[in-house]
Amino acid sequence: MDRSGDAAALAxxxxxxxxxxxxxxxxxxxAIAAQIGSSELPVGARLPAExxxxxAxxISRATVVAAYDELRARGLVESRRGSGTTVARAAxxxxxxxxxxMPLGYGESLFHRIAVGAGEVISLxxxxxxxxxxxxxxxxxxxxxxxxxxLDHVGYHPRGLQVxxxxxxxxxxxxxLPTSPDEIVVTTGAHQAIALVTQMYLRSGATVVIEQPSxxxxxxxxGAAGGRVVGVPxxxxxxxxxxxxxxxxxxxxxMLFVMPTFxxxxxxxxxxxxxxxxxxxxxxxxVVVVEDNAYSAWDPAGPSIPxxxxxxxxxxxxxxxxxxxSKAVWGGLRIGWIRASRPLAERLARHKALADLGSxxxxxxxxxxxxxxxxxxxxxRARVATARKKLMGQLLTERLPEWEWSSxxxxxxxxxxxxxxxxxxxxxxxxxxxxxxxxxxAMDPTGEHDDYLRVPFAYSEPVLDDAVDRLARAWQxxxxxGPPPAVPLV
Length: 490
Fold this sequence. Notes:
The chain has 490 residues and is α/β, with parallel strands linked by helices.
C-alpha cells in the first residue's frame, strides 16, 4: 500500500528501527531508506511533512530535517518548493552506493517480535504463553500408539478427524450447549475459522457489526472480503443491546461478530442475560451471529462462564461458535473449530476442503488427546495468568499512577487509558525505550480509543517488571517534553 504523506502509517512502519545505537537522525534515515523502492514508498511517493512526522514519532522536527537531508545526500529523495519531499527516480534503480551499507531484510512486522529479555526490545504485542509441558508427553505417546493407525488412511479430513470432532462435541455439551460431531468442522486455528465464515457470508458491500473495540485481525478479514464494519460499544455486561438494535435496524448487516467470553482487548465477560438478549435480537432481525470464544481459559477462583451464546439462540436462528486450543495450550498447535447446525457445517466443510483439504492430522490427533483434560490444563494456566495480572496491576499502580484501567474478568491483557495522550505517539517513545506496545487505533479505527493501549501480562515476573520500568521511563520522557502539537497525523 502506498503510504505517501501518511505520517502515522510511516511511523508505525519504521518505529521499531529507531532503537539501537548511533545518532537518531541517521537511524531515522536508515529506517526510511529501508522502505524506499518498496510498495510502501515507491518512486514518486511523497514523504510526510517534517513537522507531522516528528509529531507522529514524538521526536524533534530538527531530527526529521537532518534525516531528510541525509536521504537527499544518498540520492534517495528530492525536494521541490511546493511539492514537498518525494522518493527520487534514481531510487527505483536500486540502492545508492551509500545505501548499500545499510542492514537488509527489514520487513518484519511489529506483530512478529518475541520478548527476548533485558537489553533488547520487549514486545508486548502478543498475549500468548509458551506451550504446556504436557504436550511433549502426549506427542511421544501419540507417536507410539496412534500414528500407525493414522498412517493407514489417506490423511485428508476436511471436516476433521472423527475422534476429534467427537471430543469437541463432548466439550460443548459439558459447557451447556448440546452438540453432535456432525455439527463440528475442524479448522487450522480460530483465525481460519473466522476466514471461512467470512467467505461464506460476506459479499462486497455487506455490513458486519462488531464490538467496539475489537480484535485487530477482523478488520483485515472483513475488509478483504469487501465488508463494511460497524462498531457497537460495550458496557460491563457486553455489547450494548440498545445500540445493537439501532445498528441492526439502520444497517441491515449480514453478520454480527462478538467475543462473549473474555473479549479481546477488554477482557470482559458477557453475562448470561446479555447473551440471551443478543441471540434474540439477532434472530429477530435475521442476522447471522459468529461468536469467537478462543480466549476462554478458566480460573476456578474467577467468575463462572455462561454457556456459549448459541445455547440461548431461538430455534431457526443461525449462530456459529468458534473455539481453539491455540490460546489455552500452545500458539503453535494450530487447531480450531466451528460449531454450527448440520446444514451449515456441511457448507463450511466444502469451504474448508477448497482451502486446504483438511488441517494437519497429527495436530488434530494430539488435540484429541488433550481435549478431555482441557479444563484441567486451562484452569492451571488461568491461575498463573491471574497472579501475573495482579502483579502487573501492582507495578502499574506504583510506577504509572496516572494510567487508568479496570481489572478484566479474564483474558491475558489490560486495556489501559492514557490521560490526554495519543497512544500511537506514546508507542513510538516506548519503542525507543525498548518496549513495544499496541495502540488502541489498531483495535478501533474510528478514533474513539486512540488514547488506549493493550498491554498483555502473559510474561514472566522479571519481564513484566522490566517492561513496566521501561514504560514508566518512556512516559516520563513524553510528559517531560509535553505532548506534541495537535496536528493531524495524516
